[in-house]
Amino acid sequence: MNKKDIQNKPNSEFLFSKKNYMIMVVGLVVIAIGFILMAGGGSDDPMVFNEKIYNFQRIRLAPTLVLIGLAIEIFAIFANPNK
Questions:
Q1: C-alpha span between 45 and 33 (Å, rounded)
Q2: What sections of the protein cross the membrane (predicted)?
Q3: Is the pLDDT confidence value at 72 over 60?
Q4: For a disulfide at 31, which of 9, 65, 69, 80, Cβ 3.0-4.6 Å?
């Protein structure tokens, strides 16, 4: 192998460290929990309105968890693994 072949060899290291990926997984889990809490609340009978769709879990808690999960994802991208 000459010097030119070594320079053209692709770099095979990951973009982020293990710490960054673990933080990303935590963020994805928080987002998934938020969407799971947001689901449901409908009525079995389409002619009957169900007030459960406007409870605290679906209006406040679930969207807050999704936003916190997105913030965790942004933090995971910008986190410096060397610190």
A1: 27
A2: 21-41, 61-79
A3: yes
A4: 69
**Exposed / middle / buried, residue 72 (Cβ in 10 Å: 0-12, 13-18, 19+):** buried
User: What's the pTM?
Assistant: 0.78
Q: Are 66 and 34 in contact (CB under 8 A)?
A: yes
Alpha helices in 1-80 (DSSP H): 3-8, 18-38, 56, 62-78
For residue 82, is pLDDT > 70?
yes
Whether residue 22 lies inside any domain: the answer is yes
Q: Which two tokens stand for residue 52?
A: 């459960």
Q: 38: Cβ–Cβ under 8 A, 6 or more apart, which residues?
A: 58, 62, 63, 66
Question: Is 20 a domain residue?
Answer: yes
Angle between helices 62-78 and 18-38 (to 10 degrees): 170
Asked if residue 39 is part of any domain, the answer here is yes
The total of structural domains in the chain comes to 1
